[in-house]
Amino acid sequence: MSLASWFRWNEPPSRISQKSPMEMVVETLMMELSWQTKQAEKQQRERENEYRKIKTGVDYGWLVSYPKQSYDISPGERLQLEDMCTKIHPSYCGPVILRFRQLIAEYEPEVQEVSRLFRSALQEAAEKIKEEEEAKKLARQWNTKNKTSLSLTTFKSRSRISPFISDIKTISEDVERGTQPTRRVWSMPEFRNAK
């Protein structure tokens, strides 16, 4: 048996697992949530230690051992958050993480509140995505309507607009003559058919 078989030098490099962009987004966002949960738990322990130090005046922190992670999100809530993550477009993954970190830094939450802040960051991104989709939809509708209306502008009508024709009656003429004005709208130009 050769050493090459032990080290597998002659095998082609293994390919990275093919995951869909949606799976990658969900995985990335959920990893960020778990990391922020661990950090919040660590900060909460540090605050409790500081409080005990102030209260008792003695530091027993070196004597205490903590479990790696004692708080975990309920399975139902985890599924809801994963479902919300599937609605996030891959281009919004980074901004969601930045917004989530911003909320964490701003509020310095307890461990139980981290998932709520994560949910609010996901909802903000989902609303922004929805607004952009609606704007794109309106832009597409406008473009299609605009194309049809442009085709109508090339159509030449037989009617002509004559705003300065000499026989147009004005309100002042009727007042001067003391007659009742006709039921015509005076601000509109007169339309005549070309012969």
UniProtKB/TrEMBL annotation:
Signal peptide: none annotated. It comes from the Eukaryota. The gene is Rd3. PANTHER family: PROTEIN RD3 (PTHR28489:SF1), RENTINAL DEGENERATION 3-LIKE (PTHR28489). The lineage of its organism: Eukaryota, Metazoa, Chordata, Craniata, Vertebrata. InterPro entries: RD3. GO terms for biological process: retina development in camera-type eye. This is RD3 protein.
